[in-house]
Amino acid sequence: MAKRKVYLDNSATTYTRPEVVEAMLPYYTNIYGNASSVHSFGQDAKNALTEARKKFAQLINAESSDEIIFTSCGTESDNMAIIGLLEATNGKHIITSQLEHHAVLHTCKYLETCGYKVDYIPVDSSGIIKLDVLKEKITDDTTIISIMHANNEIGVIEPIEEISKIIKELNSTRKNQIFFHTDAVQTAGKIKLDVQKLGIDLLSVSAHKFYGPKGVGALYVKQGTKISPILHGGHHENGLKPGTENIAGIVGMTKALELANNEIESENKKCSMLREKLKTGILNLIPKSIINTDFSNSVSSILNVSFESVEGESLLLMLDMQGIAVSTGSACASGSTEPSYVLKSIGLDPVTAQGTIRFSLGRQNTHEDIAYVLEVLPKIVEKVRQMSPVWNKR
Amino acid sequence: MAKRKVYLDNSATTYTRPEVVEAMLPYYTNIYGNASSVHSFGQDAKNALTEARKKFAQLINAESSDEIIFTSCGTESDNMAIIGLLEATNGKHIITSQLEHHAVLHTCKYLETCGYKVDYIPVDSSGIIKLDVLKEKITDDTTIISIMHANNEIGVIEPIEEISKIIKELNSTRKNQIFFHTDAVQTAGKIKLDVQKLGIDLLSVSAHKFYGPKGVGALYVKQGTKISPILHGGHHENGLKPGTENIAGIVGMTKALELANNEIESENKKCSMLREKLKTGILNLIPKSIINTDFSNSVSSILNVSFESVEGESLLLMLDMQGIAVSTGSACASGSTEPSYVLKSIGLDPVTAQGTIRFSLGRQNTHEDIAYVLEVLPKIVEKVRQMSPVWNKR
After folding, report:
1. A335 — pLDDT class (breaks 50, 70, 90)
2. How many domains does chain B have?
3. Which residue of chain A comes nearest to B25, CA vs CA?
4. How confident is the model at residue B334 (pLDDT cuts 50, 70, 90)?
5. Residue A284 burial (CB count, 10 A)
6. pLDDT at A178 over 70
7. Does residue B148 fall inside a structural domain?
8. Which of A159, B29, B200, B363 is most buried, taking the most CB atoms under 10 A from its CB?
9. What distance in Å separates the CA atoms of residue B270 and residue A345, rounded to the nearest whole number?
């Protein structure tokens, strides 16, 4: 039995906060109507939905609650943003980055098979998109640029406002508007989202990354942005997302974002402190460790580290036996034996990339958790290295 | 204030059973890992998912749990079944019926704009699909036939096994297999689903129609049925439905179906009794009432009635003021002033169709509820008719 359970995989998913569960409960058994129904049961549900939408819009500084489409997850939001926009605008060309989440990358790969042109912009060694290449790739056909707000593996924050400025300038003289989408799944609840300040047209979030329930997300669609539904059915969510609204989930997500926004400064301060402690401990205690996260420009929750001559997967399993949960990359890509494309994009060689783990901190983590990791991890790395022919040959 | 609250709109949505909520709760705060994560938090979630999938497969008599894809709603299931199959098989021709739910009809309408050919088979006066027309419409290009199990407005049960037999016979000599999809959203939990006995390849359900939570559904995909994902991202659900699995929702849905299946006979008996009482009462107390539901072939929960010289919408609103929740048709189509296409398809003239309401019974309804409706409804119909110039001219 492990001495302690330490969950350091909060970028994969978080627990749902008890306050959030409590906010959701009435919508299972009491206020259970279909928000599309005309009678009072339906109207009570609709009122809850309207309130949640209004609140959610405020929380990300949208101009109007009409700009919020509730979805079933971040992946659906990303798909809807890109496919829905291209379909509505007869778009042809997409620009994205090499380190997007699979929800964007695989959507783009799919669209390539449908005849759309996609450019995948490279990033520098800290993971920041190369703006000069981005600018070069923009053509008259460019319809959408999709660049994530922060990366899920290394935590780097992309220069969204800068990209938005570039696009706005071009749009002022172009015939075909370029629309700007950002996947903010890793920043919602960690950075106070302000869609107007960011200057974006479309923004995706997912509740279960900020202590909300799984199975619910949102897409911000700026007024005037044409978008088609990608699922077909009833006229829910302004005709954009059919299916009976998941009121409990929507109320839960909104509550979770409200709580997270209220605590954003104190939580970031705590996370930064814990992350610094973890990093310093690792660098002091474990030789040949490489920090892949740029501390000057990343969400405070993520620390990505490579250990020379170690398999990340072995490390993960041995840490797990000691009660510590980390990941080798994105949970969505787990099970894959390929080295992370994100680490490859920042220039890590495949061998180093394979020796990498991601710690992602959350609100439940304590100094004691980090102390425990720093007690356990060096021994594990040492043990794995002792078994490694490469390490012993050094 | 109404003397009593009577919810008779259980086909629009149901409350979530407290036992179901209880089954879901651990997956918010305790077993909250991402089922794709390798560590114990993830594996605990994955175990819950695997168990739910196995149980769910048993509940609908699937051969293997691999045949179950968990989705975010019935609409997504329907879209995935039809679009996903056509994409994977390079299909060309779809056959469906005129009284499908919008999730199927609007998907087909969308596919027509993409160049697919769709035939919408008419139904007889009780809503049963015309099998001779269906047979005539099948061509070498036919890839999918999608016929609902029971209709959401009038409750009619379609001859799924018979259609399946026709298809099987044709498939035995055809080069291009015809696949058979049924939207079982209105029958799951009301008729014991047996996918093998029904002889279908694809079947959609939605949890919130059988006392499960909103925001979760399932698609049964028979082994050997090729299907492509319609959303793009991670490799969840056998590569068919990306996005972190909503474990709480999936566990809740499975629990709800298990409970419903266990009680199916007693509930149907009770519903049939209440429906009979409601029908007899209406026919005795309200002149010029027309029963649109075929009692010999329908789910026991639905009673669709037209009242001459009455606007269904007025009736709905006045019943609501007395605490009684009914609908004029599908909740998804509410707000529309068009007469129901389902009622039109069974031959009702537009005026009669406009004077229609649907009662849909559920497990919480009692004899007292029906007695209350029979106390209130005749007076309301009388009142509305008194204000009607048409009625007074008679």
Report:
1. low
2. 2
3. A21
4. low
5. 11
6. yes
7. yes
8. B200
9. 63
Q: Which of B107, B234, B324 sits opposite A332 (nearest CB)?
A: B234
**According to the model, what pLDDT value does residue A96 have?**
98
Alpha-carbon span B154 to B170, nearest angstrom: 30
Which residue of B lies nearest to A217 if distances are taken between CA atoms?
A: B243
Same domain for A227 and A274?
A: no
Compute the CA torsion angle A331, A335, A337, A338 (nearest 10 deg).
Answer: -40
* Residue B387: band (very low, low, confident or very high) from pLDDT cuts 50, 70, 90: confident
Do B203 and B103 belong to one domain?
A: yes
Instruction: With CB atoms and an 8 Å threshold, state whether B18 touches A37.
Output: no
**B340-B343-B345-B349 Cα dihedral, nearest 10 degrees:** -100
Whether residue B1 lies inside any domain: the answer is no
Start-to-end CA span in chain A (Å): 35
For residue B37, the chain A residues in CB contact (below 8 A) are 9, 12-13, 325, 327, 331, 334
Instruction: Give the mean pLDDT of A122-132.
Output: 98
d(CA B149, CA B182): 6
Q: Which of B29, B232, B248 sits opposite A18 (nearest CB)?
A: B29
User: Nearest to residue B104, comparing CAs of B181, B162, B14?
Assistant: B181
Same domain, B184 and B280: no
Pair type for strands A117-121 and A93-97 = parallel
Say which residues have a Cβ less than 8 Å from residue B359's Cβ, sequence separation at least 6.
Answer: B8, B275, B278, B302, B303, B304, B305, B326, B373
Specify the pLDDT at position A334.
56
For chain A, say whether B179 makes contact (Cβ under 8 Å). Answer: no
The CATH code of the domain that includes A326 is 3.90.1150.10
Q: Is B40 exposed, middle or buried (0-12, 13-18, 19+ CB in 10 A)?
A: middle
pTM over 0.95: yes
End of a domain among A193, A228, A259?
Answer: A259
Cβ contact (<8 Å) for A326 and B39? Answer: yes
Judge if A170 and A26 occupy the same domain: yes
Q: Are A75 and B231 within 8 A, CB to CB?
A: yes
The model's pLDDT over A54-76, given as tens digits with 9 standing for 90+, comes to 999 999 999 999 999 999 999 99
- Residue A373 domain-assigned? yes
Instruction: Indicate the angle between helix axes B367-386 and B264-285, nearest 10 degrees.
Output: 30
Inter-chain touch A243–B335, beta carbons under 8 Å: no
Task: Identify whether the C-beta of residue B388 lies closer than 8 Å to the C-beta of residue B308.
Answer: no
CA dihedral for B258, B261, B266, B267, sign (positive or negative): positive
Does A13 contact chain B (CB < 8 Å)?
yes
Is some CB atom of chain A closer than 8 A to the CB atom of B295?
no
The reply to whether B175 and B27 lie within a common domain is yes
Sole residue written with tokens 């007074």:
B392
Smallest Cα–Cα separation from A129: which of A341, A346, A302? A346
Using the 3D structure, point to which of A205, A236, A259 is the last residue of a domain: A259
| Chain B residue at shortest CA distance from A243 | B75
Q: Does residue B331 surpass a pLDDT of 80? A: no
Q: Give the domain extent around A252.
A: 18-259
Task: Output the domain CATH number for residue A172.
Answer: 3.40.640.10
Query: Would A269 be classed as within a structural domain?
Result: yes
Note whether B272 and B252 are same-domain residues.
no
Cα Dmax for chain B: 76
Pair B176, B309 in one domain: no
pLDDT digits (tens, 9 = 90+) for B5-19: 999 999 999 999 999
Could you tell me if A250 and A269 lie in one domain? no
Q: Which chain A residues have a beta carbon less than 8 Å from that of B21?
A: 25, 28-29
Interchain contact A143–B (C-beta under 8 A): no
Give chain B's mean pLDDT: 95
In angstroms, what separates the C-alpha of B66 from chain A's closest C-alpha? Answer: 18
What mean pLDDT do residues A132-140 have?
98
- Give the pLDDT confidence of A140-156 residue by residue, as tens digits: 999 999 999 999 999 99
